[in-house]
Amino acid sequence: MPYETDAYLSRHFQTSSVDLNTQVEQLTALVVPPASPNLPLYKEMLTTVIRMAQADRNRWDAKIMLQTLREMELAFSTLEQFKRRRKVTVFGSARTPTDHPTYGLARELGQTLAQLDMMVITGAGGGIMAAAHEGAGLENSLGFNITLPFEQGANEVVGGSSHLLSFHFFFLRKLFFVKEADALVLCPGGFGTLDEALEVMTLVQTGKSPLVPIVLLDEPGSSYWEHFQAFLRQQLEARHYILPSDLQLVRLAHSAEEAGQEIARFYRNYHSSRWLKDNFVIRLNHPLNVPAMATLDREFADLCLGGGFQQQPFCEIETDEPELCEMTRLAFRFNARDHGRLRELVDFINLPQNWQQNA
User: Fold this and answer.
1) Domain residues for 17?
2) What are phi and psi for residue 36, nearest 5 degrees?
3) Is there a single domain that holds both residue 40 and residue 159?
4) Contact 262, 186 (CB under 8 A)
5) How far apart are CA 161 and CA 154, in angstroms?
6) How many Å apart are CA 4 and CA 217, to the nearest integer?
7) Residues with Cβ < 8 Å from 147, sequence gap 6 or more?
8) Which of 177, 269, 300, 320 is such that its CA lies 20 to 30 A from the CA of 74?
9) Is residue 255 located within the same domain as residue 129?
10) C-alpha distances in Å from residue 100, one per residue of 95, 96, 127, 193, 357
11) CA-closest candidate to residue 174, choices 154, 204, 195
C-alpha cells in the first residue's frame, strides 16, 4: 500500500469539507526534517487522529487510542538506547519455584546469553522470567511488565530501573516481545507460554514477523516440548494443516549452552533481512563462494518466483540504515510463503564451507 504521496493522503484521509492539509503540512514542518522518509507517515498519523476527533468517538475508544500512542512512543524512545544489541525474548511459567531444575536452567540461559553479548527480554515477573534476568544481570536485561491491580510488581533485577517498561495493554506488550526479539526461547509453562509459542510460530510462518530462531528449552529427561512437537507432527503435519518444512522453524534444546549456540549459529553469517520492492534481501556477514551460489540455484529454486539468487556487494538504496549499507546482500524474488524452507536456506548460508575463503 503506497504511503509516499500527498495524493494518497487527500484521497484516503478526507477529514471533512474543511481542508486541513495546509495545517497538517505546517505542523509537521515545525518538527520533521523535510528530507525525512517518514514525513508522509507522520502526516497520515496526524490526519487519522483528526478524523477520529471530528467523529468524536466515545470516550473508551479515544482513551484506547491515546494510551496506545503514549505507550508505543515511550517504548520506542526507551528502546532506542539498545537499538544495535541482539535481544532474546524468554517465555516460561511465572509459577516455576526457585528450587525447580527449570529455574536453574533459565538462570543458566540468561548467563549464557549475556556472555554472547545478547540482552534478555522477559515479562519482568517471577519464575522463569526472574531466573533469566538473574543470570543475565541488569545490564543485559529488559523487562516488559503488564500493569494489573492484582499482580505484584516487577522482579528485583529490573524493578525500579530504566530497563523496565510497563504496558497497560497486553497486545502492545506482545508486539514488543516479538518486535525487539532477535531470537525467542520458550521454557515449559502454562496457557500463556503455549499461547506465545503458537503465536510466534504463526507470525514467522506467515512472514508477519522476521525470521528468527525459536528455541524450545527443557531440562534433560523432560518430555514437555517433545510431546508438543509430537502433536505438531501427528495432528498438524499429518493432516496437512502445516507443511513439513514449517517444523524447521523451531528447534529443541536441553541445555542453556545448546540454546545459546543455536542462536549464535543462526547469526554466524546471516545478519538480517528485509524487503526491497519485489526482492527479498538477506544481509550477509561473509560473501558466499561460487559453489554455494550454484547450490542455492539448484536446491532452493522453489523459493524463487524467478531470476534465481543474486549476490550484491552493497546496496545504494538502503539509505535508512547507512551503517549496514556496505554489507553483502543475497537478493531473490521470494515467494513469501515457504518460511520453513527459508529457515533451511539460512542454515545453509551459515555453514562456513559456503563462505568465500578471503571474506
Assistant:
1) 6-80
2) -65, 130
3) no
4) no
5) 10
6) 44
7) 166, 167, 168
8) 320
9) yes
10) 10, 7, 10, 17, 47
11) 195
Longest dimension (CA), the chain: 69
User: Quick one: 105 and 221 in the same domain?
Assistant: yes
Question: Would you write out the chain's pLDDT as a tens digit for each of its 359 residues?
Answer: 344 444 444 445 455 555 678 888 888 889 999 888 899 999 999 999 998 998 899 999 999 999 999 999 999 999 999 988 999 999 999 999 999 999 999 999 999 999 999 999 999 999 999 999 999 999 999 999 998 766 557 999 999 999 999 999 999 999 999 999 999 999 999 999 999 999 999 999 999 999 999 999 999 999 999 999 999 999 999 999 999 999 999 999 999 999 999 999 999 999 999 999 899 999 999 999 999 999 999 999 999 999 999 998 877 667 667 777 889 999 999 999 999 999 999 999 999 999 987 54
Q: 106: closest CA among 86, 126, 81, 87?
A: 126
One-letter identity of residue 7? A
Number of domains within the chain: 3
C-alpha cell at 41: 507517515
In terms of domains, do 122 and 236 share one? yes
Cα–Cα distance, 305 to 345 (Å, whole number)? 15
Considering the domain architecture, whether residues 176 and 280 belong to the same structural domain is answered as no
Q: Hey, what amino acid is at 218?
A: D
Q: What are phi and psi of 275, to 5 degrees?
A: -95, 135
Residue environment code for 172-209, b if the CB has 16+ CB neighbours within 10 A, otherwise e: bbbbbbbebbbbbbbbbbeeebeebbeebbebbbebeb
Q: Is the pTM of this model over 0.85?
A: yes
The whole-angstrom separation of Cα 332 and Cα 280 is: 5
Q: Are residues 47 and 186 in the same domain?
A: no
Q: What is the CA radius of gyration of the chain?
A: 23
Residue 253: how many other CB atoms lie within 10 Å: 20
